[in-house]
Write a structure and sequence with these properties.
By secondary structure, the chain is α/β, with parallel strands linked by helices. Helix content is 26%, strand content 22%.
Length: 250
Amino acid sequence: MAVATLRFYEELNDFLPHALRRRDMALRFEPPAPVRHLVETVGVPHTEIEIVLRNGESVGLEARVEDGDRLAVYPAFESFDVVPLLQLRATPLREPRFLADAHLGRLARDLRLLGFDAAFANDVGDDELARRAAAERRILLTRDRQLLMRREVTHGCYLRAARPEEQLTYLVRRLQLCGLIRPFARCTACNTPVEPVARSAVVAQLPPGVRRLHERFWRCAGCGRVYWQGSHWRAMAGRIARLCGGAAPK
């Protein structure tokens, strides 16, 4: 039986029992074992990890761990230049695309309001979720820790909060998405990009009050739904200002 020393940093500690957080832990295992096996043995999904240092050297998830090795495990740093250290994937994910599982439909809609490509799957099993996330290079969003431990899932985020508002706040701040927000660039119903459209082309679809008050419109290229800068726009602009600590978008 071999022993390795593991140390997890920042929010990765949330997956550990309180007694093991923010401290070195000695883990017994049968050598040789891959890094992936050791970190998931203690309950940390590999999708939450960006960098692993084995005895000070950056390694991948399949790197072998031997008796006496020391592993320092760090979370995703999507907004920082960590490319020189990356071994777990080719590059950080700079233009995030999401796949929300069946319990996160409201979160998917909120992400679309912010302009992100956010697919939602409420009628498929875990196998299909994992396959689709990998095939489409999407960040898998879930509250199921075991789903994120599937080998084929390369990017994922565990949502600790139960309330959609808290989930959105956590995700935006965790992945530092503020600089990528493009409000109302996508259809909230089908996730297709929206395009500017002449008022004359959609006037028949508009409620009377909207016809009187608005001149600028956008239409979904997929389902044909029409959008304008009404109360939903103002509400989301306020949410973005609160999330990102800056001025609301115009």
